[in-house]
Each structure stands twice: as structure tokens, then as C-alpha cells.
Amino acid sequence: MLKLSILLAAISTSIYSLTFVDSNGATVSFSQFNNKKLLIVNIATGSARVSQLAELNQLYMLHKDSLNIIAFPSNDFGNENRDNTQIKSFCQTTYEVNFTLASKCSVKGPGKVPVYDWLSSVSQNGIMNWAPTNDFQKVLIDKNGVIIGVFGSEISPLDSVLVNFITEQ
User: Fold this and answer.
1) How much is the average pLDDT of 125-138?
2) Best CA proximity match to 120, nearest among 145, 101, 139, 100
3) If we measure between CA atoms, which residue out of 79, 82, 70 comes closest to residue 41?
4) Are 84 and 19 in contact (CB under 8 A)?
5) What pLDDT does residue 107 have?
6) pLDDT band at 111 (very low <50, low <70, confident <90, very high)
7) pLDDT (tens digit, 9 = 90+) per residue, 6-30?
8) What CA–CA distance (Å, rounded) separates 151 from 41?
9) Number of alpha carbons in the 13 Å side-chain half-sphere of residue 152
10) With b meaning 16 or more CB within 10 Å and e meaning fewer, what string describes 61-85?
11) pTM
12) Could you give the domains of the chain?
């Protein structure tokens, strides 16, 4: 196991070395989320699963002492026609979102934002190669910056499988 840990450390990049742009246009370092679990979700306000925003907010409010949620709005699946201002307003007005909202971005393909580049490459994250195939896919990262779960868009943020990963892992 020690050899595997050394190998992972040698080939991976820490998520805490990355940054993203939030819905206000500010650059945010992932290092500020260190020591809490992190749920990364690609969202779209025109998605059939948009009601998951309310569930994500409820999950965040229940576990905000140990969990941060960052939503990355994207039109990669054709369901996000709003601009950053409209997305932020919709999320706050319609779903009273309190978790972190990134600016609209790409989560797949060659133009994806750095965190999705990290999520998609075993050489960077040390765990897996992965790419989202739909809106509202969720990736859970532990307090040490290690991916511990990937949850499809059909999985509710309040599903016991996801909640158990948050509370027990």
C-alpha cells in the first residue's frame, strides 16, 4: 500500500493548487476548501434535473460544517442558455442557493476548466479518468483532496448513498 501511495503522490496534482472563477468574476483558490469535503457538480438551469439545485442547497445547509459545494454551470449538454448574471439570479431567486456558484464554463472537451481537467485525468487526480456525460453529475472529494465518489445525474443530492459518503467516509 505504501508503494501505491508514493506512486499516487508522484503522479497526481493537488486539487488545492487549482483555482476557478466564481459567479462574481473573482478568482477562487480551491485551497480555501481544504479540510472539508467538497462536492463538485456541473449544473444547467434549463436541465430537466434543475430541481436538484434545491436538494443541493438543502444538503449544503445540513452539512455546511463539513461540506462545501461548488456548482459549475455549463452549456456542454445544451441546457444552459443563460449568461452568468442570469444564472446567478435564477439560482438565488428560484432555489435560494447558498453554496458556491462558479461562472459559466465548459466541463468537457479541450476547453474545459482546470478542475474538470483535473477530474478527468488519472495523471492529475491519481484516481481515475472520467468525464461528465450529462448535467448534474456529482464528484465527492474528501478532506484531503482525494476523489471518493462519482454520482450520476439520476442520483439525488439527498440520496442516502451520497449522504452516507458525506457523513461516514
Assistant:
1) 96
2) 139
3) 70
4) no
5) 98
6) very high
7) 444 545 789 999 999 999 999 999 9
8) 9
9) 2
10) eebeeebbbbbbbbbbbebbebebe
11) 0.92
12) 2-168 (3.40.30.10)
